[in-house]
Amino acid sequence: MSDFKHLLQSDTVPIGTYLGEFATPGIGKILKAAGCEFVFIDMEHSGFGFETVKQLLNNLRAEGIATLLRPPSKAGHHLQRAADIGAAGIIAPMVNTAAEARDAVSAVKYPPEGGRGVALNIAHDDYNSADVGAALAAANDGTGLIALIETASGVHHVHEIAALDGVDCLWIGHLDLSASLGIAGQFDNPVFRDAIDRVMTAAREHQVPVGQLVGSASDARNCIKEGCRLICYSGDIWLLQKALRDGISEIRNGSA
User: Residue 256: is its pLDDT beyond 70?
Assistant: First the structure.
């Protein structure tokens, strides 16, 4: 079983973090020591290339940390490459319709479940040789697809997306969603709250877990109360900035 699908079956809410800046050799050990159970690796909004991410995935997996990867786009060749380099949970951004979700599933699943081009004995199967049929079945079983719901259209079609075989998880992209709804950053706006309720209702109806990035422990608790089953707590850039800002402020105020 893949690290991602094992994560989804946890009895407790798994907590991870976001990586979009630091891919240092020690990052896996650092995050493991901090208690991270998974990492959301972002290629859409970072300078990470596939070669860098391939090394990062190997680093994290060696520490037993589950890996979720958002490639640069939902284009089939980006999703397939994300699967080939070893990402077990692949995040398709800007999923607007069930048809787009179906295309994403096809890109990360081998026949007969999809149309992914066959490449075996490479990174995604730990360079192991196996019977072709067994290898394809194992890859399909071990590769999960996460649909990122971050547009008004995605919310409108979320019930059809959640119902689709092969969609293992929904992810709320709260910033993009608020902008798409015309209320950028207004997370308490009734329009935004209604959109979240629609996503959560679809997830419950189709028994699909939901994940979200949060900026604080209180936000995390609220998301869990709403039904989130994966919590991505802040990210490398913001955590470093906050720690430095708080420390510098404390030093300066203390010496005044």
Answer: no
